[in-house]
Prior knowledge:
By secondary structure, this protein is of the alpha+beta class. It has 6 helices and 9 strands. β2 (about 85-95) and β3 form a beta hairpin. The two termini are about 30 Å apart. This is Endonuclease V.
Amino acid sequence: xxxxxxxxxxxxxxxxxxxxxxxxxxxxxxxxxxxxxxxxxxxxxxxxxxxxxxxxxxxxxxxxxxxxxxxxxxxxxxxxxxxxxxxxxxxxxxxxxxxxxxxxxxxxxxxxxxxxxxxxxxxxxxxxxxxxxxxxxxxxxxxxxxxxxxxxxxxxxxxxxxxxxxxxxxxxxxxxxxxxxxxxxxxxxxxxxxxxxxxxxxxxxxxxxxxxxxxxxxxxxxxxxxxxxxxxxxxxxxxxxxxxxxxxxxxxxxxxxxxxxxxxxxxxxxxxxxx
Length: 275
């Protein structure tokens, strides 16, 4: 998978002002509406065989089934080896893993809140370049539109690759939820609205009516301490509402959606080769 907009790719050697300026260019280019090469209803964790069986049954009952395979969904996560990043990509078609790749790259920056893509973006692009397939959807461990300049990791790399992308974060970087998020039941969701910490960029507003993502309670367990929600947001070529629906469709038995959960596990597995 190669960058469609290499001119917008994160690169080393930039000052903070230059990095923030590049993020604004990325946000101006980002599309926060649905522009997908697949029907979101086709996204699931069913195996292709199960999917085909369901389509056959639907057709027999008079339903509308086009016979297309489920889209390719790539989960992306990282582990770290001192001053290097190991970026892992796991691609699923339905519930079946069809490709796994990783790349080890030098890190040029420490972690700086709001500038994560300049630390981890280049290494992730190195891993995506190893793929033989071209995923239809990218799912990142990090924020998308829920970001001070509406250009988190998922937005930045989604725009660079010109691919539909989703950010899935474990904590809220900015914005305000409509409702209190504590102790919610599985499947619950509430919008995250822009607030004073979010800049309006290009044609993307940042007023209190602007939904920049959702808090989503992917799992909850009666026998365990309360599980906190995920904070999901569109990266590129997705609306906030479709984003949270897709994350729900990609959620299995764990808190994290299956693509990023498998990428996280693979990053740890691959890391052992270098230790």
